[in-house]
Amino acid sequence: HAGPHVGPMFPPTHPVANAPVGTPPPTVDGFVREFLHELTSNQGVSLERSTVNDQYLALAQTVRNYLSARWIETQKKQRTTRPKGVAYLSAEYLLGRQLGNNLLATGLIDIAEEAMKQCGLDIAVLRAQEVEPGLGNGGLGRLAACFVDSLATMNVPCIGYGLRYEYGIFRQTFVDGQQVEQPDTWLALGCPWEFAHPEHAIQIDFGGTIETYVDADGVERTRWVPEWNVLGIPYNYMVPGYLNGRVNTLRLWSAEATKAFDLAIFNSGDYAQAVRAQTFAENITKVLYPEDSTPQGKELRLQQQYFFVACSLRDYIERVLGPEFDLHELDSRIIFQLNDTHPVIAVPELMRILVDLKGFDWDEAWAVTKKCFAYTCHTLLPEALEVWPVDLLGRLLPRHLEIIYRINEEFLDEVREAFPGDEMRIRRMSIVAEHPARAVRMAYLATVAGCKVNGVAELHSQLLRDKVLPDFSQLWPEKFTNVTNGVTPRRFLRLANRGLSELISSAIGTGWVTDLERLRELEPYAEDAEFRSAFRDVKTRNKAKLNEVLIARDGIELGQDHMLDVMVKRLHEYKRQTLKLLHIVTLYNEIISGRLDPKTVTPRNFVFGAKAAPGYLMAKQIIHLINAVGSTVNADERVGGVLKIAFPPNYNVTLAEKLIPAADLSEQISLAGMEASGTGNMKFQMNGALTIGTDDGANVEIRRLVGDENFFLFGMSEPEVAELQAKGYDPGTYYESDRRLRGAIDLIGSGHFSGGDRGTFGSIVTNLVTVDRFMALADYASYMDAQERVEKAYADTEEWTRSAVLNVARSGYFSSDRSMRDYIQRIWGTPPAF
Ligand code: 475
């Protein structure tokens, strides 16, 4: 089976493949002219009087002009060929900076750099001016951004739908080592990448009641009589493929007050109330909820979710397909991919559109709906599975609740038929949970409605089938599948690590950028001493650049020539940042108590990056502890500088692009069975870091690909975790029996890192010794052993480099291009139209 056509949509006419057809190849002089034109006509300033922000905006505008013509062409072509496309529905897109990516996609990097030089400007300074759109929390949001990049590059028609939060993920600062959140004002200095279309506003209804009526044909029907509404304004972003002429669309919705609404109130004379109504509407897209994996059941969050999918479905059905389209054939033109349960309210919304507005009968509508959705699950944590209280849903979306009830009734009838007399099963599988309060289980609704359900790594998909949705996988085994996550090599290798990219290309050519499996051709170079030396030089330069960035950004100085050991990800107990801390505190404690000679310790920089959900108190205390250990250890002369701890605040995509290329060691140390996949792990591997990790998420697949000898495995396997859980886990026994572990925990408990105050980190210590839900103590000894193996391996520079090169060479599988191929083959289907 040939699979989708992947490659340029138009034969490139000149090296700048995203430039408009027929335009002459861009030149440095031409680029300078266009840039100066943008500066004067858009910013209204001369070069001499311009600020860095003016210059950045003018440069962005210049690049955007190269993309927009191709964008229009892509859409024109799609309107005539009408291919089946993908609508990726995601409440989050963690895009990262756009300028570098768009320069890369248009092939303009060198021309732009030279043009800026001719204007007396440093393009790096302009690029640094961009505030990244942080419209996501972590893995799930970044995955969406990688996927839309890959689909454009693979020439697959895709429209990404999401929300344009006025405030993205908060900006993290530390005050006395504690996290303090600041609003992320990413739009304050202007966003040159978006195209606002207020004229295409869509009205979205909320609240009210439902009523039945008899239609013209004498059929009894239901309709929703809503109480209030808001407008959804689309903001379009260009998603360029890499040098291939395709530019897809990312459409983010922003909420505004409807005119009719405030006009009515204005006419009643209540000016203040009218203005409040405006604010009320705008609240819907005001801020990204900063909870990663423990969503709070907040009404505003449900408003966001419904607003986003209602805008998106209406947009696709009415604007993209148009009134002539026969919606019985909807699945021939679109698949809606649900990025977790956040967009699942789209299921009853499509049913409502088909039944209430388009006159379908129920069965017809359900047959169409079932073919148009597929669901991706990103978690295994029970507290992360979204449920919406029935009273809240009924108040905000009464008709949708009614539709969900009917879906559930018919579904449960199907279960009864398959398993007669099994009422326990009915209760377990019901979309509507009865206890503790009546609530809709969104993952169940997605599973019932979706044509496919996938996990995000092999182990995760297995656990999803066996532990999270076992009844469903028994009923519909063929519905379940796996698509292992991936990351875009354009941003995370080609752009973030120019040195390594050039080294790779000098060895095997440039084809790897869109065909990452070709990195396999590097394997023989692992045996080539000259290549290894060049590879090390790249790492050294990346470390030097990181040092510059950290000094400029935070005044942080790392140890020179140290191993760089990095743990960057959201702060969560299951990810076990505390286990990493126990390793550091153990080394420190052994040194200061004279049992370990610092001269025998491999000098290491430990770098952390992590945001905690603002309401997650334990996570915030762990952040405080990391900072406290950092300042104590860094200042203690007995350590002789061999252990350095850095925790730059506000870890984001931009910082990731600096940290990952410099890393030697990647920490992926979640309790087995907890991390659905991980994607940072893939980025580190791709950039030549070795992984120390548990058998969890995609680590399993990384290790299988790189081989045991190139991976530092430790800890219990998932079945071992389950077994220990079942027989009863007591962290106290580990504490009592392991001298080093006890020493480290006692040192934290003694107040050594908190100016003598035992209370500061008391709850962390108590929690570890008495509860330790994620079994850090059980895996501690094994982790310490693995870290010793790391030290030994790192001492043999040539062997380490050999391993690092092999890690890169074997990372091709983790391109998000491969993930997209898997989605096409296993979920979306591969009609010739792709
Ligand atoms: C997994 N975010 C990673 C990654 O598949 C995985 C949840 C609720 C509300 C807002 N955000 C979330 C997540 O659940 C999330 O980011 N999950 C992550 O998805 C991509 O690699 O293992 O933890």
TrEMBL record:
CDD domains: GT35_Glycogen_Phosphorylase (cd04300). Keywords: Carbohydrate metabolism, Glycosyltransferase, Pyridoxal phosphate, Transferase. The keyword Transferase applies. Its EC number is 2.4.1.1. GO terms for biological process: glycogen catabolic process. Pfam families: Phosphorylase. It catalyses: [(1->4)-alpha-D-glucosyl](n) + phosphate = [(1->4)-alpha-D-glucosyl](n-1) + alpha-D-glucose 1-phosphate. GO terms for molecular function: glycogen phosphorylase activity; pyridoxal phosphate binding. Its cofactor is pyridoxal 5'-phosphate. One of its GO terms (cellular component) is cytoplasm. It is an enzyme of class 2 (transferase). InterPro entries: Glycg_phsphrylas, Glyco_trans_35, Pyridoxal_P_attach_site. The modification N6-(pyridoxal phosphate)lysine is found at K683. Belongs to the glycogen phosphorylase family. Allosteric enzyme that catalyzes the rate-limiting step in glycogen catabolism, the phosphorolytic cleavage of glycogen to produce glucose-1-phosphate, and plays a central role in maintaining cellular and organismal glucose homeostasis. This is Alpha-1,4 glucan phosphorylase.
